[in-house]
Amino acid sequence: MSKALNMDLIYCFFDAANMHRWNDHLRPIELTELDKQAHKMAIAWMLGKFEETNGANINWTELIEYSMFSFIQRLILTDLKPQLFHKIRQERPNELNEFVISEFETAVPNCNVEFKKRFVKYLGGKKTSKEDQIIRAAHYLATSWEFRLIKDLNRSMYGIAQTERDIELELMAHSGLMGLRELVNKSAYGFVDLFGQLRFQQRWARTPRIPKTTVLGHSLLVANMVYLNNLDKKVGKEQIYVDYFRALFHDLPEVLTKDVISPVKNRISGLNKLLEDYEEDMMESKVLPLIPAQWQDEFRTLIYDPFGAKDNTDAGYDIKTCDLLGAYIEADLSIRYGVGSDRLKSSRDELREKLIERKGIDSKGLIERLDAMTV
């Protein structure tokens, strides 16, 4: 049986870094679909935790997978304006779903059978569950955050007021979620805003690359790979939740320190330890206060030691492998797209050697599949 952790599917997710949002508007920074989906999942975590606090039972595995399915659908239909997408979905849903499935089968020909079955079922479902509500609300909150960035630059553009009203109406439609009320009223918005700042931080500082992936987009790529690997391993729901969000949040401290590249860390004796201590102090003083006190202990388990260095866990090891694999994909594809400095090429080669030596995930097979792909 084909594995869920499949390079064709990974490439689909990565390619979202080439998909620009609001590309018919003036933008202060590049806004990509990969970053938007990552931001959405951080917001979905907050909304889910608020619902749990309010007594709801959240199926986190379904929430993660439904979000992944909606991401895949968006990847295939990304050129459609939202208004047109919603109109077609209402008037010709079966044809739309058939098109999405056909395109997905072409892009990921060896998809895991069970994963594909659930994807097809999701497309045809009514999407009325609490998890679906959370995903849609998170989607519009992330869109609202983007709109705040571009609004002033586009104030005189035709239709901008209607766009703002449309976003507000979509948010109001989900006002039954406790977390949405908390976030819209700004009592917990600081976390959303801070996490979104990772969209400003580019990976591979001072190294020309295309696409210019961000810390936030990389985090989602790693989290999705970790989830797919856990499907292959058939781990329990609790570990799926913990591993996914450990991976999604693994670079969150970089919003406080910036992305310090490995050569700098390794060249300066003691810098790694100094950064770790500083990051923990700053996380405790700047980030933890942005989330409700009753979640803070759990959040610490997600953000500290994501790679299991202190307890040498298999899960942490796999997250690190996915982190390295994400970096390899970023370097390799940039070189193949035609932008590759000597530094990037040497880093790509070093990552390849490391990955092939690592156990557990079949990094060698994934890399060989990437080598064979036409990009």
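[next item in queue]
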Amino acid sequence: MTSSHLCYIPLMILVGLVVGFVLGRKAGIGYILAKTDREQRRTERRQKREQAAAETAVEESELPSDGSPT
């Protein structure tokens, strides 16, 4: 084993660690952004459903109580 291996092997391990850290960080940030976007869309859909249900309840409360047309 030559002296160049004493520098080359640890250097390659270090490069691998740095590349892994950078790619892992990028994947983590992407995951967090996707999760936040998914939660925001879910909240918007829930609000729309609740608003539609409230509008339906108001429309039903405006109908005559005996069911006969006016």
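[queue empty]
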